[in-house]
Every structure is written in structure tokens, then in C-alpha cells.
Design goal:
Blueprint: E1 21-23, E2 28-31, E3 34-41, E4 50-54, E5 57-66, E6 70-74, E7 78-82, E8 86-88, E9 93-96, E10 107-111, E11 128-130, E12 135-149, E13 154-166
Parallel strand pairs: 1-3, 2-4, 3-5, 4-6, 5-7, 5-8, 6-9, 7-10, 8-11, 9-12, 10-12, 11-12, 12-13
């Protein structure tokens, strides 16, 4: 019988840092575990995406922004906890690094932000947004807001949110 109410996983407290991590267009960089402020990857190109490789462990960030054709990859099992919002543009990737041998079970993404200023279902921006034709290979949890997967996104793993919106052609 609808609505289906499932138990929500517990969310452990964490504190984001203030040090910003800003990657320029087409830059590749590795990042050690830690607490960070805004983490932002500028747009790459089809042949040379912007790539941030997380070296495994816990990453507590204030906000995570992936512009078009950028990649957030985990070289070792990692947990990315976002205090604010996750905004990923078109043709982005979030998941294990190629050749790492990791799966969706090894990449955890927690977004504790809310939709817009009010947290209401129709408020914008959504707590977590993944742009058109992107790929997510992870276990994602958005307990206080909406997880929006735009059309053409390939989503592999487990996805839980207060609200989930799925575009046309999402697999």
C-alpha cells in the first residue's frame, strides 16, 4: 500500500572544513582525506575532462560542484559527506576510478543539505542534482532533500533520499 515508508539510515554528525578545493578547466588532481569547504571542478572537455581523484577515506565538504564534463573518482574506498548541496552538471562522473577494482559499494555519498532555502519539495535548487547524460556509481543518501537524476543518467548502486526524481531514460 502506498505511500511506502522505509526506515531511514542513521546520519552520523560531521563537520565540513573551510579550505576550498578549486580545480581549473581540464585540471587533474589528487586529494587526501580531510575536511574541506567548497569543492568545485570547472568544466572539462570531452577529450580532457577535469578530474579530482580522492585517495580514499572520509571527505567532509561544505558543498560539491561538478561542472560539465568533470569527474570525481575514488582510487580507494571513500566516503564523501556534503553538508550543503551536490550539483553535478551534464556528462559528469562520480564513482570508482578506472582500474581501481572498486564498485558502487566502495563509494558512499551523503548529502545533508535541503532543497532551496525552505526545504520544501518544490524548492530549488534541489539538495542533490545530477545533470543529463551523467554516470553515478555509488551508494547515495540524501536524507533531508531531493535527489534529482536528469535524463540519460546511468545510476549504479543504492540511492535513498527524502524524495527522488528520475528523468527520462535514467537506467
Amino acid at each position: 500500500m502506498l505511500p511506502l515508508v522505509l526506515p531511514r539510515p542513521a546520519v552520523a554528525a560531521f563537520t565540513a572544513g573551510s579550505e576550498e578545493v578549486l580545480l581549473a578547466k581540464k585540471e587533474d588532481r589528487q586529494l587526501a582525506p580531510g575536511a574541506y569547504g567548497l569543492v568545485e571542478l570547472r568544466a572539462g572537455t570531452t577529450t580532457d575532462p577535469t578530474v579530482l581523484t580522492l585517495m580514499g577515506g572520509d571527505f567532509d565538504v561544505a558543498e560539491l560542484v561538478l561542472h560539465h564534463r568533470s569527474r570525481l573518482e575514488c582510487a580507494d574506498p571513500c566516503r564523501v559527506r556534503v553538508a550543503g548541496r551536490l550539483a553535478a552538471g551534464q556528462n559528469t562522473y562520480l564513482g570508482p576510478a578506472g582500474g581501481s577494482g572498486l564498485s558502487a559499494a566502495d563509494v558512499e555519498v551523503l548529502v545533508t543539505g535541503i532543497n532551496g532555502p525552505s526545504g520544501m519539495l518544490d524548492a530549488t535548487p534541489k539538495a542533490a542534482t545530477v545533470g543529463h547524460d551523467s554516470t553515478v556509481v555509488a551508494r547515495a543518501h540524501v536524507p533531508h532533500g531531493t535527489l534529482l537524476l536528469h535524463q540519460g543518467t546511468v545510476a549504479t548502486g543504492q540511492f535513498a533520499a527524502r524524495d527522488v526524481q528520475i528523468g527520462t531514460g535514467v537506467v
